[in-house]
Every structure is written in structure tokens, then in C-alpha cells.
């Protein structure tokens, strides 16, 4: 069974690029365009990995990460345009497992 990856980004083009790359690599994907929808999907489907943007409508990615961490240890990879050192530190300290900045290489992300 393919690993299930949840892609959370408010940009439909980013979701499409990441989804295409991950599906071609054999993963099963689901997507959300805001933080609240992401939490519902996490609760309903228990993904194996979350690729999470920070700048989201409804609830930002940092708050999504905090809420997920209350009940799950699912790996979280932040994928965001925020590239300051303090942003990376905060993302990792609140429970993120990795932090990739935009622009990014889809091939690198899949690896």
C-alpha cells in the first residue's frame, strides 16, 4: 500500500506540482487549501506525512502543526516561503520534522 501524503498549501499550482511529483513517485496524496481543512483530513485519514505551508487561510501552518502534535507524531515537512532563520527554528521547535523553503525542486522534495 502506498504511503499517504497530505499536501496543505493555499496555492493550487503548488499543490498540483507537488501532487504530480509525489504520485509519479508512487505515493497516494490528498490535498487541503487551508488549515482547518487540513485538520479534518488528518483526523479522518491519518496520513503518513504532511507537507505543510505556513501562510494559510483559516489557520496558519504553525497552529496546524501544534494541533496535530497534540494527538499524532506524523512527520511534518514545512514547505514555505518564510526563509528567515527564526522561522525555521520556530517551525522545528513546535514539532516540524523538516523545513524546505520556496522556491523548491519537486525532485528534491520527493527525495
**Terminal Cα separation, in Å?**
19 Å
- Principal-axis shape: globular
Q: Which stretches are poorly predicted, pLDDT < 50 over at least 5 residues?
A: none
Beta content: 15-25%
Q: How would you characterize the largest beta sheet?
A: 5 strands, parallel
Helix proportion range? 40-55%
Mean pLDDT: 95
Widest sheet, order of strands: 2-1-3-4-5
How many β-strand runs? Answer: 5
- What is the number of helical segments per DSSP (H or I, 4+ residues)? 5
Using only C-alpha atoms, the radius of gyration works out to 13 Å
Structural class: alpha/beta
Question: In words, what does this structure look like?
Answer:
This protein has 111 residues and is of the alpha/beta class. It contains 5 helices and 5 strands. Helix 4 (85-93) links the parallel strand 4 (76-80) and strand 5 (98-101). Helix 2 (35-45) runs parallel beside helix 3 (61-69). The longest helix is centred in the first third of the chain and has 13 residues, at 12-24. It starts with a strand and ends with a helix.
Helices and strands, with pairings:
Blueprint: E1 4-8, H1 12-24, E2 28-32, H2 35-45, E3 49-52, H3 61-69, E4 76-80, H4 85-93, E5 98-101, H5 106-110
Parallel strand pairs: 1-2, 1-3, 3-4, 4-5
Helix pairs in contact: 2-3
Amino acid at each position: 500500500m502506498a504511503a499517504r501524503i497530505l499536501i496543505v498549501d493555499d496555492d493550487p499550482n503548488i499543490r498540483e506540482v507537488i501532487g504530480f511529483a509525489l504520485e509519479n513517485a508512487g505515493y497516494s496524496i490528498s490535498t487541503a487549501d487551508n488549515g482547518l481543512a487540513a485538520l479534518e483530513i488528518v483526523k479522518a485519514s491519518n496520513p503518513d506525512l504532511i507537507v505543510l505551508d505556513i501562510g494559510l487561510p483559516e489557520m496558519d501552518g504553525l497552529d496546524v502543526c501544534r494541533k496535530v502534535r497534540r494527538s499524532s507524531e506524523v512527520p511534518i515537512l514545512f514547505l514555505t516561503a518564510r526563509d528567515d532563520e527564526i522561522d525555521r527554528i520556530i517551525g522545528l521547535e513546535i514539532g516540524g520534522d523538516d523545513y524546505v523553503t520556496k522556491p523548491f525542486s519537486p525532485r528534491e522534495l520527493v527525495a
